[in-house]
Design a protein that fits this description.
The chain has 190 residues and is mainly α. Helix content is 57%, strand content 0%. It is built from eleven helices and no strands.
Length: 190
Amino acid sequence: MKTATNLDVYYEAVSASDKLAPIQEMIRACMQCGTCTGSCPNAFAMDYTPRQLWRLVLLGQKDEIFRSKTFSLCSDCYLCTLRCPRGLHLTEAMDALKQIAAGENRAEYKYSILFNKNFMQSVRRHGRVKEMEFMTNYFTAVKNPLVPFRFASLGIKLIAKGKVSVSWLPKARFPLEKIFQKVNELETPP
């Protein structure tokens, strides 16, 4: 989690149509070289490459941007930012797009938002992810009884390979509650 930034305060104060302006300013110097796309380990799964997404941002194509799954597939690995010849903060720009989508409660990102929320709740409670509890809470929050069936075969494979524990682990000795409280303090604008 990050501390509150000027962008966070800005997003709360402006209308939805003006929220792209600070992101456009962050990437204004983009020369469309494609280094971000070539560096991205998730580019193969994106409907627009990062380079194409930045072009849409510069053109102000808000509807097209938020129909895309590109920024939601960004794993915040910072490879694009590290390798950008212009030194642009591309990962922060991707995060800003995620914040706009979450703030607008867009239906396309409902599952991503619920996934993140339940993941962090599990970490907060146990100091690590307890997979079975996390997925149970996530599927309950989704409120669609068919969604778990889409993941059933993957879950069975992961359990069979020992990648997911079905045992209930004891609560962590050093719960992370105080850390989460401090982060909330730092994120809350004055």
